[in-house]
Task: structure prediction
Amino acid sequence: MSADAWWKNGIVYQIYPRSFQDSDGDGIGDLAGIRRRLDHLVALGVDALWISPCYPSPMADFGYDISDYCDIDPRFGSLADFDALVADAHAKGLRVVMDFVPNHSSDRHPWFIQSRSARDDPKRDWYLWRDPAEGGGPPNNWRSNFGGPAWTFDAATGQYYCHSFLREQPDLNWRNPEVRAAMYEAMRFWLRRGVDGFRIDVLYHLVKDDEFRDNPPNPAFVEGQDNAHRVLPLYTSDRPEVQQIVIEMRKVADEFGDAKSSRVLIGELYLPLARLMAYYGEDANGVLQGVQLPFNFQLIAAEWQAPVIDRIVRDYEAALPAGAAPNWVLGNHDKPRIASRVGEAGARLAALLLLTLRGTPTLYYGDEIGMTDVPIPPDEVQDPFEKNEPGKGLGRDPQRTPMQWSGGAPNAGFTEGRPWLRLASDWRQRNVEAQWQDEASMLRLYQRLIALRRDEPALHEGRYEPIDAGTELLAYARVCRGRRLVVLLNFGAEAAVVSHELVPIRPRLLFSTAAAASKATDNSGSGPGFEPTVGWTLAPFEGVILSD
Ligand code: NOJ
Result:
């Protein structure tokens, strides 16, 4: 690997801790469970794990409602378990990225309990409190992202408090310097314990309009959609003042580590391209002082068509500030799984895409074995989003089901108790153990691709060159120090011929999603699909990497 900071060339693996591995039979995954499964991550070949929140929490939003920023929830273990996990991970060459949730705490956090106790409490201004509107009702039209107004009335003190998500998740007041100082101390608490960075929850939400102006109505709103979309989040997200906070957070991270082992900040940002770029924090001298990786979610939302993806990649590459590290994501705990969105064959192609584009890839647990969304019957629903806005397909339980480790053990080896969410019905066939045995499996495909990405500088640090290849094909090259690899992806259900002008003169097949399926990765010279005067033939949904 190169001398760059680890997060530039590394691969991040997201763990939803409730669902990864239970070690004590309560049906909920925990830190000791993750620790037991580190060898899976080593075998897969990833570089870092990001753990969704494991702080003390009443679990109204399954850990995204934090009641203590400097401890571990007993359901997940203890600080000692956390330290042991970090030590083991580091010993195995894995980095650990913590989830950080600065926009809101739990309503059970002592800060909020104090804040709501009286209007003149010193902590009152740590949260966003407003008088009712003239004539009563919420102070303005802001909507919660989880349905209903973003305001809840506190009868005891006669004011409303603001919450961008559940009423159990009151928004902190980031204009208050005391709040900033306390949150930066919380970051230092974990950085001192050795964490390698943070994924920062809804970073773009931190600051709200200081005049509390109404958001404008959304002309594109369609009945049946997520209620939050009734208005445009003009005054509630991506406010200019958030940029200063981003810079301050980066300074905190930079107090720790050196250039190579620098601590990374990964911002959760669902924003249009130009606004996303702002979070790299490029200053007038071209210095990037923002988050190193503003999450690029475009592949999650994209229509799965070659020209669409081609445009996305070209535009993203063109928009990046000089020296900025790109990144790509296929899925996470909030969005439908890739294998459900594009099917099994499409998911193999997506893996090739994710691992050959320029930039840090983030994998969502279970995607490496092709896990799909699991339908959850109404009486088993856990997710508060689905409970608040039922039947709109917004629920996130389907993509959070337990990891499928083994076909022979109860509950796929996830727990000896009763899993908090049901398992996928296919767990006896689709599981880690079975897929290690099967050369053609999704897991083997991921493992081989990751190994190739690690071995080939062109793939982990080479530049990206677009190639025009027609409507069913996506093509690009990755180039590094004279080595040029061509990646061809056939998005169509028909075989496709790629003109010989677009492929290397004497192409060598380095990797094929189909060859992986039939065991025969051909490294012997010209590949089976090549005719010098015609070109390279790709099977339906096949993707390949060719070299000279
Ligand atoms: C984004 C997180 O990814 C999501 O799971 C959570 O519900 C909201 N932020 C609120 O914290």
Remarks:
- The chain is about 25% helix and 15% strand.
